[in-house]
Amino acid sequence: MPPGNTEPIAASLEDFIRRESRVEADDPDFSRQVNLFDAGYLDSLGVVHLITHLEATFGLQLSDDALADPAFVSIDGMSAIVGKLGERSNA
Amino acid sequence: MFAETAERWFTPLERFAALHAGVARRSTAEVIDLSYPNYVVQRDTRGFDALRAALAGTGQESLQYTPFGGRTIPRRLIASALAKRVGVPFGFRDVALTPGATSALGVAFAALFRPGDEVLMVTPSWMDYPLYLEALGVTVVPVPSGTAKRLDVAAIAGACGPRTAGLILSQPACPTGVLHHEAELISLAAVLARADRRIVLISDEVHRDQVWADAPFVSPLRFHPHAVSVYSFGKAWSMQGQRTGYLALGTGLREPATYRAVERALRAGGHCAPTALMQEFAGRVAGLTPCAEALRADQEQFRALLRAAGLEVIPGEGTAFVYARCPAGLDDWAMTERFAAHGVLVMPSSVFHEPGHIRFALNAGPDRFDEISRRLRAALGL
Question: In this predicted complex, what is the ipTM?
Answer without folding.
Answer: 0.84
